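Handout, section B. The chain below has 768 residues.
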Amino acid sequence: MELPTACYRLQFREGMDFDRAAGIAPYLRNLGVSHLYASPLFTAAPGSTHGYDVTDPTEVEPEIGGREGLERLSRALRAEGLGLVLDIVPNHMAFSPEAPWLRDVMRWGTDSRYARHFDIDWSQRLRLPWLPAPFETHLAEDGFTVVDEEDGPALDTGGLRIPLADTPGLAAARSGDRDAIRALHAEQPWRLVHWRTEADAIAHRRFFNVTGLIGLRVEEEQVFEDSHALLFELVEAGIVQGVRLDHIDGLLDPAQYLARLRARLPDTPIWAEKILTGPEQLPPDWPIEGTTGYVAARAFGRLLTDADGLDRIDSDYRAATGRTDPAEDVLAGAKRQIMTEDLSAELWALNMMFAEIAAADPVGVEFGPERLREALIEMIAAFPRYRTYMTARTVSEEDAALVRRAGSLAASRLPAPGAVPLLTDILTRPDAETARFRLRFQQVTGAAVAKSQEDTAFYREVRLLSTNEVGGEPDDDPFGPAGFHRAMLRRAARMPHALTLTTSHDTKRSEDARMRIAAASHAPDAFAELFRLCDELASDDLHPNLRWYLAQTLLALDSTDSDIEARLHTHVEKALREAKTETYWTAPNETLEASAREYASRLVDRLLPHPEAARPILEIADRLSLAQCSLKLTVPGVCDIYQGCEIANYSLTDPDNRRPVDFAALDGALSDVSRLARPLDRAKFDLTRSLLHLRRARPELFLDGSYTPRETDNRICAFSREHGEETLSVAVALEPGVTANELEAAAPGELIWPKAIDAPVRIAIREG
């Protein structure tokens, strides 16, 4: 198996197509990467900005060049000696009549060849929550028309056309008669409903709470083959040399899926987007190279955050906002809200299955639906990670112990244990009667954690936003060099070829924005003054928690970037709605949001460029950025450079992190790095290029080299990578004041970087 030495993540769509990507292949080669790492390339919903809403997994997206364009890109990459890693989406597809397979299901129902491809509960009609009003209201307004399309009749709802089965009522409904249309609707395998009812009950498994995405049943061999046929063809043709799997935890049985995929792709590197929480490790029976890199990013952040300064930040945060709840309680509260609101349809379906099992149980028969529902909510609120990996026939002791611990915590939070012990027992006994419930429960816990933590609690518990990151925890404690070394030794032993990222399309903030915020822990007095300046500009209707959040966000932005005010407006609206306390995506508080935008404008107008009070933080942040970059490029794993992050990048949450990249400027920097305006741009670009070329020249050292901690005091983190006669030494200063001589003593050998600037890093190599 040929592994990449480094990948460069490129987001296709929104101006990036195959021909433009082919044009930057020489730049990528000269930068030093070995593989282009592409976002999903299969045909997606019209107007998709990311490609994760696939409509046809058998076709390459025509909007970015189609199959011919992909082949041109492949030839351009091969000409530069580069490979292609492809991001695919095995868990779900777009829930849309634009999807050919789903369109067939809408027309033929359970008789469709694809009826079992999707995770649909066929005990009821397929609910389509796409109407702007209840069905009868829309009907009374003559909102429906029967039309003919190339593949057959359809019901036009006023912009959306739903395929119709050729039923007895079709002819009469063509007249537009309301009773006839109502009768025709009743004959279909689907039911159109108001979009606001989607949380009440749905007939398909969603991706998280996104009703516009429908789960695939890739555990079925035919579904697996059909949905992966194009991938296998592209690998066989030599177009794709690596695979990234999106949202592996959504699958019914990830281990079974991965074993099947590995059997079909025995010589292709595979990485899975698996979020590991706390002490959780990648399941040992997963035949993949590792995760996509969030574990490493979390370790870098914990190393580069100052513990004493964080204590001061925490104290100031509590005093300024009045917040006293532990982060664990904030998360549990968010989970309860998510389960009863965003995921109420999933909760309803789980409760129906739980009730059916309980009714046949001598203990469970005593519980009514409300006690069962209460037990489900509290068990999920107490769950400490995305999911367990029980199968229809097996429950590992590790998973059983995890469920029991969660059950014990859930019971302790209730006035009486209620049905929690029953639920614990059902989830931990591997019998056929409970298998369907057990497997579906696992899929729901992952959605609950993701929505409650990343998309809710991260916007409520905001003491230091650099810790509020995918795979991280708001109450993450910093660890010194010893803790970092333990994490890297585990990584070297268990997944030495995992991806190593610091920014992705999903990170809440880009790597350098996070380091700006982490730097506040090194200069808490400076941040206290910055917050005071921000707080003075706030209106009384804005909660102190939002003010604290925006003070950090202002720090994370760079005044030389473009469109800062508009970007901050978009971000503050998203932050408020994701918090789900005062305004919501489905019910915006326009007065509050307008006030928050006005506040954001005042911050930009009065405090950018950053005031003198922020200078100590900004200076420390530049050093932390170089430290983080050097770690990513040298620790065990395959490093992943997100587009544009070879220089300083100060982006906020999606979609801000998908702004266009000026590749012409980056290409020019290859011949003259002084063309880059900011000092950090020049230093980071030089560091990245130097280490990428070294990785490509000495792949065994970086991919298979040992990891050995070097003894230092807590002001320096140092380690070596050894393979054969080669030794790479790395030393990173964790505090100001570390001298060049101290770094040289910690990382002896021929200097690789830096060679012309003062930096908090030393990277050297020895032979023999």
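Note. Residues 120 and 204 are 4 Å apart (CA to CA). Compare this with the example in section A.
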